[in-house]
Amino acid sequence: MENQKETLVLIETGMGDIKVKLYNDTPKHRDNFIKLVKEGAYDGTLFHRVIKDFMIQGGDPDSKNAPAGKQLGAGDVGYTVPAEFVYPKHFHKKGVLAAARQGDQVNPKKESSGCQFYIVTGKVYSESEMLGMEQQMNKNKLTAAFNKLVQQHMKEIYKMRKENDEDGLYDLQEHLVAEAQVETDSLPDFKFTPEQVKAYTTVGGTPHLDGEYTVFGEVVEGMEVVNAIQKVKKDRGDRPVEDIKMKVSVIE
Questions:
Q1: Rounded to whole angstroms, how far apart are CA atoms 160 and 168?
Q2: Is the Cβ–Cβ distance between 91 and 24 less than 8 Å?
Q3: Residue 60 to residues 2, 100, 143, 193, 246: CA-CA distances in angstroms?
Q4: For residue 251, what are the β-bridge partners?
Q5: How many C-beta atoms lie closer than 10 Å to residue 192's C-beta?
Q6: Which of 78, 129, 158, 223 is 20 to 30 A from 10 in CA distance terms?
Q7: Among 26, 213, 216, which residue's Cα sits nearest to residue 111?
Q8: Residues in the chain with pLDDT < 50?
Q9: Is the pTM higher than 0.85?
Q10: Which of helix, strand or coil describes residue 171?
């Protein structure tokens, strides 16, 4: 698998060309992307959502010939792709290709959109900011464990609230906090890898997206085009005022 040649894809735009390679260890995303490219599914679609220092997004089938001002981003191809997190090997450094998806509330398995993708631009972080993010991630782990326990005790909580049993509620809260602490203490602390720290403090990226969205490729040429696209004038929905159409082909 490691020695298998990586597929290269060319994204042509009026602002220049972007060449991306697709990772072999995210085969479902790789194969789906190649299939759509070969079917011409992306030809004439737009980079419909661009946010400076964050990412440029495209691949919405509804963006083909979309009238000016039309809100885009909800189009799909009728299926999703199961998440393929190869983390921490693949992370959201500047220049990676990743799959867009619907939010956790409707998509708890974090399955990817069948067609929409984004290229990360992100920003450069200091080492102290990275440290702060690590601490926040570990704090979030405790909150998540506590909230899960609260859900399991909802009947009891409702009953105590109904009876205005403030002492009971306080005791239960203390007990659940202690239980959540024990649960999270048994888990390893979240830490960025040296590779992540190096990338995020030099070229930059979007670390808060790690482990949330599938990263399945990266730009190998044309990053200056991506940088130019992220800076274009856009409307309130982050859609570029002047359409940035793409034509996508597999480099055989």
A1: 7
A2: no
A3: 32, 10, 35, 33, 11
A4: 8
A5: 21
A6: 78
A7: 213
A8: 1
A9: yes
A10: helix
- Cα distance between residue 28 and residue 39, in whole Å: 17
**In the beta sheet, which residues pair with residue 118?**
57, 98
Per the CB < 8 A criterion, the answer to whether 210 and 216 are in contact is no
Q: Which amino acid is at 143?
A: T
Please name the residue that has the structure tokens 């809260």. 173
Task: Judge contact between 226 and 56, C-beta under 8 A.
Answer: yes
Give me the count of residues in the chain. 252
Distance of alpha carbon 172 from alpha carbon 181, whole angstroms: 14
Q: How far apart are CA 229 and CA 226, in angstroms?
A: 5
> What does DSSP assign to residue 6?
P
Token digits of residue 15: 């602002």
CA dist 171 and 148 (Å) reads: 17
Please report, as a single letter, which amino acid is at residue 162: K
Give the pLDDT of residue 61: 98
Single-letter code of the amino acid located at 170 = Y
pLDDT tens figures, 131-169: 999 999 888 889 989 999 999 999 999 999 999 999 999
- Is the separation of the CB atoms in 95 and 196 below 8 Å? no
Q: Which tokens belong to 40?
A: 């011409």
Distance CA 49, CA 132 (A): 29
